[in-house]
Write a structure and sequence with these properties.
Blueprint lengths: L1 E6 L7 H4 L8 E2 L2 E2 H11 L4 E6 L3 H9 L1 H4 L1 E5 L6 E6 L5 E6 L6 H7 L1 H4 L4 E5 L2 E3 L3 H11 L3 E6 L7 E4 L5 E5 L9 E2 L3 E3 L17 H8 L3 E5 L4 E3 L3 H12 L11
Parallel strand pairs: 1-4, 1-8, 4-7, 10-15
Antiparallel strand pairs: 2-3, 5-6, 8-14, 9-16, 10-13, 10-14, 11-12
């Protein structure tokens, strides 16, 4: 099975980092967000990736082009430039890197890589969200309901304390940063049939608007409710929180063993 990862956006809300690199290349624990996402998919047996590039996509190309050597012990003859790989810990992944345009919207990016997907069920997600979602269980759910699309529904981490205020102004309860303050949202981690791509018109189509709305209208969209960890990296504050979770050994999205 293939996983398509949308990695071409500008990431303007975390400009401190994205001014210098694509958002999926922002590092958590010394590794790009993109790497963390791919490690989670690979843990569930999905190791064939299609990455939709856009903004500063050359940096993602360079990362993977040199990945084998970066993950290896090397012996280098500085005079000739010849080198020998002594030991490599590179993963057994296949990675297809596709330039899907600097201004293309999320739906348009998916449509542009349709020819690389083929006629098989596939995964789709964003390059900036980390989760401990059970991809294998979501796939079983997708096959049972038989619709064209499954979206992982998540409860976003709360950012503010919630007050329950009575008519007299008394605070009846206080909950610090509840995770269910706005209900279920689109958490990415889709599983799709190729026919779902037919709902996309072209480059200017946002996957999150007409395609998903029309799939829902036609009864072709189901929600897999994920009750575990999920967090996007939208701001510098998010990055620092994720870094701290990694450093403290509490990175719940680290479902892999190595």
């Amino acid at each position: 099975m293939k996983a398509v990862i949308l990695a071409g956006g500008l990431g303007t809300r975390i400009a401190e980092e994205s001014d210098h690199r694509p958002k999926p290349m922002i590092e958590v624990g010394g590794r790009p967000l993109l790497w963390h996402i791919m490690k989670a998919y690979a843990h569930h047996g999905v190791k064939d990736f299609i990455i939709c590039l856009g903004y500063k996509g050359y940096m993602i190309k360079e990362f993977f082009f040199n990945y084998h050597n970066h993950m290896a012990d090397l012996k280098i003859d500085l005079k000739s430039g010849a080198h020998t790989v002594l030991n490599s810990q590179a993963e057994d992944w296949s990675v297809t890197l596709v330039d899907t345009g600097a201004e293309t919207m999320t739906g348009g990016r998916l449509k542009r890589v349709a020819s690389y997907i083929g006629n098989e069920t596939f995964c789709l997600t964003y390059g900036d969200g980390l989760s401990d979602i059970n991809i294998a269980a979501e796939m079983q759910f997708h096959r049972r309901h038989g619709k064209l699309a499954t979206v992982a529904a998540v409860r976003p981490p709360g950012r503010f304390g919630v007050l329950n205020i009575g008519q007299a102004g008394d605070v009846r309860s206080f909950e610090e940063k509840p995770s269910n303050e706005i209900g279920w949202i689109n958490g990415g981690f889709f599983i799709l049939e190729p026919a779902a791509i037919d709902y996309i018109d072209g480059d200017v189509t946002s996957w999150e608007r007409e395609p998903l709305q029309n799939l829902a209208r036609d009864g072709q969209l189901a929600a897999y409710q994920h009750h575990g960890f999920w967090q996007p990296c939208d701001t510098l504050r998010d990055k620092r929180q994720l870094d701290e979770l990694w450093r403290s050994g509490q990175a719940r999205w680290r479902v892999w063993n190595d």
